[in-house]
Automatic annotation (TrEMBL):
Species for this entry: Nocardioides zeicaulis
Protein name: Orotidine 5'-phosphate decarboxylase
Gene designation per UniProt: pyrF
Pfam families: OMPdecase (PF00215)
Family matches, as CDD domains: OMP_decarboxylase_like
Keywords linked to the UniProt accession: Decarboxylase, Lyase, Pyrimidine biosynthesis
């Protein structure tokens, strides 16, 4: 199985680094003139897939917006994953799972094993039960050529109370980044184990170059700019995936307008880290 990092490098070269979030929250459903029900969820999500999955390298559905409709919503998510991958996009499922032992293994089986109906190219995960709690997911990524993006420095105002906390000389975020650096050691051209670092975190003293990719939420409508990315990430930006949802999704429901918005986002970040 080709490692996720290799496939991601190819996707960035072929299609660009912009990551489109497929997040059908209720406000956007209403902006599109839709109701807050499963039929509207399906129409919204699959319209976005039709528009953007053939032209961007990575799409990122947020699982919670589908789960809130129960099994029928998860069935829509399965179609989003399947149809996005069929259109050539890598699917990074934003689930932020994190647990221990058999539960962590079950999450790995659900999202990273290719025999699962929810199998994706990569997922997000939380390391705050201890980085070793993610070992089943790490091993599943190695076995199946999948990727893992681990929370490190998030933009939410509550994040620093945990992520900036210190154990001696190191912050919690720095410890997470060190673990990722070890997992990616020797990978070429880029590792399969990434960090989640917000586009609006401001200054950081952390070394963000872990040899792996960086998922960068908060670009666009949430305030992150290209200048912010260059300043925060420096050379590490060469493997950054700036992610935006509302900036693109508000262009719907017209498919052509959605696609054009995605292409504009891609063009805006094409030269990062050059």
């Amino acid at each position: 199985m080709t490692p996720f990092g290799t496939r991601l490098a190819r996707a960035i070269e072929d299609r660009g680094r912009f990551c489109v979030g497929i997040d059908p929250h209720v406000g956007l459903l209403h902006e599109w003139g839709l109701s807050d029900d499963v039929a509207s969820l399906e129409r919204f999500a699959l319209t976005v897939v039709e528009a953007v999955a053939p032209v961007v390298g990575v799409v990122k559905p947020q699982s919670a917006f589908y789960e809130r409709f129960g099994s029928r919503g998860v069935a829509v998510l399965e179609r989003v994953v399947e149809e996005s991958r069929a259109a050539g996009a890598l699917v990074l499922l934003d689930v932020k799972r994190g647990d221990i032992g058999s539960t962590s293994q079950a999450y790995a089986d659900a999202y990273l094993d290719p025999t699962s109906p929810l199998a994706c190219d990569a997922i997000t995960a939380s390391p705050f039960l201890g980085f070793g709690s993610l070992d089943p997911m790490v091993e599943a990524c190695r076995a199946h050529g999948a990727g893992l993006f681990v929370l490190a420095l998030t933009s939410n105002k509550e994040g620093p109370e945990v992520q900036h906390a210190r154990d001696g000389e190191r912050t919690v975020a720095g410890t997470v980044l060190d673990h990722l650096r070890r997992l990616n050691d020797g990978a070429d051209p880029v590792g399969s184990f990434g960090a989640v670092v917000g586009a609006t975190i401001g200054e950081t003293g952390e070394d963000l170059d872990t040899g792996g990719p960086l998922l960068v939420p908060g670009f666009g409508a949430q305030g992150g700019t290209v200048a912010d990315l260059e300043r925060i990430f420096g050379r590490a930006a060469r493997w950054a995936l700036p992610s935006s949802s509302r900036e693109v999704l508000r262009a719907g429901p017209d498919v052509a307008a959605l696609r054009e918005a995605a292409l504009r986002g891609n063009d805006a970040v094409r030269g990062l880290g050059a």
